[in-house]
Amino acid sequence: MKGQSGHSNCFVDSSRVVIYDSLFEHVKDRDHMISIIRHEIGHEVYWHITKKVIMRILYYDLLFAGFTFLVNIKDEWLPLFGVTFNSLFLCMFIIIHFIHFKIAYYVYEVVERSV
C-alpha cells in the first residue's frame, strides 16, 4: 500500500497481509521482513482480531445488562443517593463516565496482554 499515513505499518485483514511501503525503510534484511509477515499471519491463525471483537461485544453486553438492571431497580437505589427519577439520566451518565472507562481500560489491557 502506498504510504500516505507517514508511519510504518503492517496488518492482516483475513485475506491478505497489507504492508505500507514506508515499512521497507525500516526493514534490515529479508529475514526481518519474513518475521514481520509471519507475525501478521499469526494474528489471523490465532484469531486475535476475532477474540478482541468477541471480548468487546461481551463487555458491552454486560455494561448494558448492568444498566438495565439498575434502571429496573431504580426505586431501591436512587433514594440512597438522594437522586430523583427526573435526574436518573444525569446520574447514569456520571456512573457510566467514571466507572465505564475504568472498566473498559482494565478489560482492554487484559485482552491486549493475552493477545
Task: List strands and helices in order, with pairings.
Elements: E1 10-12, E2 17-19, H1 30-45, H2 48-72, H3 74-77, H4 88-114
Antiparallel strand pairs: 1-2
In short:
The protein has 115 residues and is mainly alpha-helical. The protein is built from 4 helices and 2 strands; from the N terminus they run ββαααα.
What features would you describe in this structure?
The chain is mainly alpha-helical and 115 residues long. The chain has 2 domains: 10-45, no CATH class; 48-114, no CATH class. Helix content is 63%, strand content 5%. A hairpin with a 4-residue loop joins β1 and β2 (17-19). The longest helix has 27 residues, at 88-114. The chain is elongated. The mean pLDDT is 79.
Essential attributes:
two-stranded antiparallel sheet; 4 helices; 115 residues
Q: What do the pLDDT scores average to?
A: 79
Identify the overall geometry. Answer: elongated
**Oligomer classification:** single chain
- Specify the biggest β-sheet: 2 strands, antiparallel
Distance between the termini: 25 Å
**Largest beta sheet: what is the strand line-up?**
1-2
Structural class: mainly alpha
Instruction: Determine the strand fraction and express it as a percent band.
Output: 5-15%
Question: Which H/E pattern describes the elements?
Answer: EEHHHH
Separate helix tally: 4
- Determine the fraction of residues in helical runs and give it as a percent range: 55-70%
Tally of distinct domains: 2
**Backbone CA Rg:** 22 Å
How many E-type strands?
A: 2
Low-confidence residue ranges: none
